[in-house]
Every structure is written in C-alpha cells, then in structure tokens.
Design a protein that fits this description.
The complex is a heterodimer of chains A (about 180) and B (about 270). Chain A has about 180 residues and is mainly beta. Chain A has one domain. Helices cover about 15% and strands about 40% of the residues of chain A. Chain A has a five-stranded mixed beta sheet. A four-stranded antiparallel beta sheet of chain A has the order 5-1-9-8, with helices on one face. Chain A is globular and about 45 Å long. Chain B has about 270 residues and is mainly beta. Chain B has one domain: Immunoglobulin-like (Sandwich), CATH 2.60.40. Helices cover about 5% and strands about 45% of the residues of chain B. Chain B is built from three helices and 18 strands. In chain B, the strands form three sheets. In chain B, strands 2, 4, 5, 8, 9, 10, 14, 15, 17 and 18 form a ten-stranded mixed beta sheet that branches. A four-stranded antiparallel beta sheet of chain B has the order 1-3-7-6. In chain B, strands 11, 12, 13 and 16 form a four-stranded antiparallel beta sheet that branches. In chain B, about 35% of the residues are buried. The chains are: A mainly beta (about 180), B mainly beta (about 270). Chains A and B meet through helix 2 of A and strand 2 of B.
Chain lengths: ~180, ~270
C-alpha cells in the first residue's frame, strides 16, 4: 500500500521537475516524508547534505538543509539533532544552530522541494567531482533511515536521479542543472 | 564526593582477583554523545558477571574524577552508594569531550615464612603504606613477591564535536591513548588505541572486548587482542552497541621494593552507526 503510494508520488514529482524549475546551475532536490499510520507520530528531523567521494583532508561535506524542532524554548529541539546519527558525525556536531539558510522547522508528510543554486550559499561553488547526496530522516519514537544518491558534477544537460527509502524516507529525487 | 574520598580504598587485590573470575568492573554513562547546549548524564559504577547488569556489588574504588574538555577537573553530583551500584550525575555544558575516571594504586606482598606458612601484607581491606614495608615483611621471607598495582576505570562523553584535551595520559599506570577518539567509534570502522604503562608502550597487554547484554546471549562472545611492540591495538567492533574493554598488563619492571608491576584498565565505549 505504502509502496504504491510512494511510486505514484515520485512520478508526480518527476513530472513537476521536468516541467521546469529554475534554469540556473544547481540542484533541485525533492524529499518525500511518508505518511505513516502510527499511534504517536512526530514529524521527522531531517538532514540533507553532500559529500565528495575523496577521503581525508580533500573530502568536502556540505550541509544543505536541516529540519528540526527549531521553535522549542531554550534550544530544546537542538539536543535531538544528534539522532540524525550519520549526518551528526559527518558535519552536524561541528555546527552551531540555527544555521542561516540551512535549518528550519520539521515538515509534515508529503513531498518537499529544495533548490540550491551554484555559487550561492549553502551550496556555494561546488567543484568538479564525484559526490553523494544524503537524505537522513529520524523520527522521535520511530526509526531512522539514510537514502543516498551518487552523482557527478557538473552536468552537461539536466539530469534526474532518484532513490527511495523503505521506512522513514520516501522517494528522493535529484535534478542536476547545468 | 567527600564521602568517596574518605572511604576510598577498598581492597584492590580483592577486586583484581574478582576480575579473573569473569567479573567486569565498569562505569556506564546514560549516553556518550550530546547535542544542543548539553545537559545531564547519569553514570553507574558496578562489578558484575553480566554486562551491564547489577549482580555483584559496587566496590568503593576511590574518588570519581572528571576531566573537562578544557582539561581542567570538575566534580560529579548526586552520588549514591547502593549495594549493587554507585551512581552519580554530571552536567555536560562545555563543547568537547569529558573523561570520567577512577584510578588507584596499591602495593601488596606475599611470601612464605621460615616455617612454611603463608604471609601477606597489607591485611585484607587495608591499604599498604609503603613506609611500613620493611617492618611488615620479615627479612627472611621466602619466595617474596611484591606487586605494585594500578587500576584505571574510565568512560567518555562528548557535547558536539569531540576533542582530546581531557584524554592526555598522566604517564602513571596502564592508560589508553586514543588514536581513534573514544566518542567517535563506528561499527563499520576499526578503532585504534595505544596502551601505555607508566608512559611507555605497554607491549603484549591482554585486551578483552565484550558487548553489553551478555545476559541475553548464549556465549559471552568476547574478543581478545594483544598490543603489539608499540602498545598498539586495532579493535573491530563489527556492530553498534555498548562495549566493555578490559586491559591487563604485567611485567617485572617494578619500582623497589616491588618485584612485579601490574596495570589494569577498563572502559566503556558506545559504538554507533556509521
């Protein structure tokens, strides 16, 4: 049931992306937060980031978006950012929240569009190379899942890639614009 | 805190012998990685056959000490001494790594008297005063073995990104030097540590690694390692979880009047997903 819905929605998103977003060089990402039929549902924390495939000092890690309970008093929502375990270890633990243009409130179930332009924060100037897009979602009282989309940058023509999670993350699409 | 210091030294010898009977001494934090502005972490200290259950008591090993991310010392709060565990809280509010630890050292001697009886010093439950060695141990003691023992029990908690200021070795007893940071352990990656004895590589130290939850396993499932000529060891965790690491080292490079130098180290590590 859930699977069927995921496929339908990702097709829809694909059409939306194809029908043309900004033509500026950059990345359009859609992240689907699945609708889950659970007794106690909390909207997931999310991290969207890029990593270059190099190891060591040459490795680039760029956090693009983080969703968390940013309105909780006295930074109460920040303390759970560590539950986005993989992102926390790669980058999150070195950041101070909120991060301008990166962090925002958690999102309801549905498909969420994110757009990043080459030369503009938080993407900045993404150098030529091989990368992986990571989308990690973690839910209070629920699970955690990471979906990866490998890609090469830059592209000569608009390229669409996608991947899908099985539990906490729905369809993830990545549109690369030259 | 004061209470800990006063009742400090229980018999280290007794604990040491308990260890060899498949007991582990451990210090378990409620969590090892904090985010945001930090907060409280609670700890339990106990001796047990099953990790990390409370089944054998809580030896009084001495003062609980805390090294903060800046390297300065701090104190624990709300200490409670139960029959099966000692518990306490620590407020984590500086970014970086805290080390919570207990150390002690002891001297003990055993021998045979001229008429074949066994002698030992100090008396059970007492702490040896090295100044009394020459009067306490008979001059004609046979097969005299004098052991200088050190024990260190540690665990680590990090707020935000880990740092290493609190991890500097003191060059006393058996210590772990992190190549891999103890709060940056991942199931998919090996972790490397160097063991030092009084500041020098502890060659051939015996290392045992056991995952928590042993009550629910058919076999103890321990992993055994030995440090190489540089005191180096590489641990493969293989899975996420909370792990106990114990290290034992012994040689004859003791300071007189001791003839045997022995060091014991144990720590609790949380291994998280990559």
């Amino acid at each position: 049931m859930l699977k069927k819905m995921l496929i339908k929605q990702s097709l829809f998103v694909g059409a939306l992306l194809a029908s043309g977003f900004a033509s500026a060089a950059g990345l359009n990402i859609s992240v689907e937060v699945p609708k889950l039929n659970v007794a106690e549902y909390h909207t997931p924390y999310a991290a969207v980031w890029l990593e270059s495939t190099e190891e060591g000092d040459k490795k680039t890690v760029k956090t693009l978006s983080v969703w968390y309970a940013d309105k909780k008093r006295e930074g109460g929502g920040e303390k759970w950012l560590k539950d986005l375990r993989q992102w926390w270890r790669r980058d999150g633990r070195t950041l101070t929240f909120p991060v301008d243009g990166v962090s925002g409130a958690t999102k309801l179930s549905g498909v969420h569009q994110l757009s990043y332009t080459q030369g503009t924060a938080p993407l900045g100037n993404l150098p030529k190379g091989n990368y992986t897009l990571f989308v990690e979602l973690a839910r209070e009282g629920g699970g955690r899942e990471v979906v990866k989309v490998p890609f090469t940058w830059p592209v000569e023509k608009t390229t669409s890639l996608s991947a899908s999670g099985t539990a906490e993350v729905g369809a993830v699409t990545l549109e690369l614009n030259p | 805190m004061k209470k800990f210091i006063q009742c400090a030294f229980f018999s280290t010898a007794m604990v040491a012998s308990a260890i060899t009977q498949a007991h582990s001494l451990w210090l378990l934090p409620s969590e090892t990685s904090k985010g945001g502005k930090g907060g409280w972490v609670t700890f339990d200290l106990a001796l047990s056959t099953e990790l990390f259950n409370f089944d054998s008591g809580a030896p009084k090993l001495g003062a609980i000490q805390v090294a903060t991310p800046s390297g300065s010392l701090s104190e624990v709060q709300n200490a409670f001494e139960g029959k099966l565990r000692t518990s306490f809280d620590l407020e984590i509010n500086q970014p970086g790594t805290y080390k919570v630890f207990v150390t002690n050292s002891s001297l003990n001697a055993r021998w045979e008297t001229a008429d074949g009886k066994r002698g030992f010093w100090p008396a059970r439950g007492e702490k040896a005063d090295p100044a009394q060695f020459s009067t306490a141990v008979p001059k004609d003691a046979k097969n005299l073995e004098v052991t200088q023992s050190t024990r260190r029990l540690e665990t680590f908690v990090t707020l935000g990104a880990p740092n290493k200021d609190a991890l500097k070795p003191t060059n006393q007893g058996l210590e772990l030097v992190s190549v891999t940071h103890p709060n940056d352990l991942a199931a998919s990656e090996p972790s490397e540590f160097i063991f030092l004895i009084d500041g020098k590589p502890a060659v051939g130290a015996k290392i045992e690694v056991v995952e928590g939850g042993s009550r629910y396993r058919l076999s103890p499932g321990e992993q055994n390692y030995e440090t190489d000529k540089n005191g180096h060891v590489k641990i493969q965790w293989k899975k996420t979880g909370i792990f106990w690491l114990g290290a034992e080292y012994k040689d004859n490079k003791a300071t007189k009047p001791a003839t045997v130098r022995s060091g014991s180290y144990s720590a609790t590590f949380e291994v998280l997903a990559e």
